[in-house]
């Protein structure tokens, strides 16, 4: 059995936890509450098994059950856990002032993301400008690891086998998908210049710039990401934004303890 989020019951050492995590993610990305049948169908679970996990999550106050509609939704317990984690996240604490400053200086939406290998990235910091374009995302949003400019950074500095990169690349959804060979060349360019650029591939008309952040030698653990309308970013100074983003990422890496980072 494979859940829709990629969690495999056959390979998981703790299938009950994997099922609970899959349910929480599903409820988190749906705007409306869901019934047990809909949840079971979406995740490929036996309804009785799904109901058992749902009841356990209700008891832990991670999800809520509406007796009138017979549907489930996330509960306040999830928010408590998230706030506790954010309160202990050194990256989120250090990155937020940088995100705010870059957002105001360049009139872009700024994200701080945590990288989870080749699986996905999670938004853990956010600053939205007051201008017309605002990216539809929020703290906790998840994206495929190799998508857009951030994905090029992950591939460039992760030392992953090309075959594995291609396998995952083929599953990505872009507005204007690049050819894999073109994408690989851009990954190599990212490695040389220290930042990645996506000009309309991921979202038509939108430019995304990303710079990697390290806590220690090895793969990047986080990234700083700037997004905005392509023409507006050019007018505001795309080159200056790229340079400032790289400098900010290096400063943040140094603050997080990466000895390789230079000012």
Summarize the SSE layout with pairings.
Elements: H1 15-29, E1 34-35, H2 36-43, H3 47-59, E2 63-66, E3 71-74, H4 76-88, H5 90-106, E4 109-116, E5 120-127, E6 142-144, H6 148-158, H7 162-169, H8 180-193, E7 196-199, E8 206-213, E9 222-229, H9 230-236, H10 238-256
Antiparallel strand pairs: 1-3, 2-3, 4-5, 4-9, 5-6, 7-8, 8-9
Structure description:
It is a single chain. This protein has 263 residues and is an alpha+beta fold. It has two domains: 15-79, Winged helix-like DNA-binding domain superfamily/Winged helix DNA-binding domain (Arc Repressor Mutant, subunit A, Orthogonal Bundle), CATH 1.10.10; 89-256, 2-Layer Sandwich (Beta-Lactamase). It has helices spanning 15-29, 36-43, 47-59, 76-88, 90-106, 148-158, 162-169, 180-193, 230-236, 238-256, and strands spanning 34-35, 63-66, 71-74, 109-116, 120-127, 142-144, 196-199, 206-213, 222-229. Strands 6-5-4-9-8-7 form a six-stranded antiparallel β-sheet. Strand 7 and strand 8 form a beta hairpin. The longest helix is centred in the last third of the chain and has 19 residues, at 238-256. The radius of gyration is 20 Å and the shape is globular. The model is unreliable at 1-11 (pLDDT under 50).
């Amino acid at each position: 059995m494979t859940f829709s989020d990629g969690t495999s019951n056959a390979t998981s050492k703790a299938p009950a936890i994997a099922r609970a995590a899959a349910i929480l993610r599903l409820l988190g990305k749906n705007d409306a509450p869901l019934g047990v049948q809909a949840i079971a169908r979406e995740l490929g679970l036996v309804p009785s098994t799904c109901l058992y996990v749902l009841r356990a999550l209700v008891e832990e106050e991670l999800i809520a059950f509406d007796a009138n509609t017979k549907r489930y939704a996330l509960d306040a317990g999830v928010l408590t856990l998230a706030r506790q984690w954010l309160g202990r996240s050194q990256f989120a604490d250090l990155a937020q002032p940088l995100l705010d400053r870059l957002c105001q200086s360049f009139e872009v939406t700024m994200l701080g993301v945590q990288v989870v290998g080749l699986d996905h990235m999670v938004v853990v910091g956010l600053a939205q400008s007051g201008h017309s374009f605002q990216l539809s995302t929020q703290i906790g949003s998840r994206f495929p690891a190799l998508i857009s400019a951030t994905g090029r950074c992950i591939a460039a500095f992760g030392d992953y086998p090309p075959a594995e990169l291609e396998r995952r690349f083929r599953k990505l959804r872009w507005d204007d998908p690049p050819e894999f060979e073109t994408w690989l060349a851009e990954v190599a360019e990212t490695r040389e210049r220290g930042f990645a650029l996506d000009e309309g591939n991921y979202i038509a008309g939108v430019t995304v710039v990303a710079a990697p952040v390290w806590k220690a030698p090895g793969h990047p653990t986080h990234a700083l990401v700037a997004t905005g309308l392509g023409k507006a970013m050019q007018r505001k100074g795309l080159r200056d934004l790229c340079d400032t983003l790289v400098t900010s990422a290096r400063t943040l890496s140094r603050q997080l303890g990466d000895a390789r980072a230079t000012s």
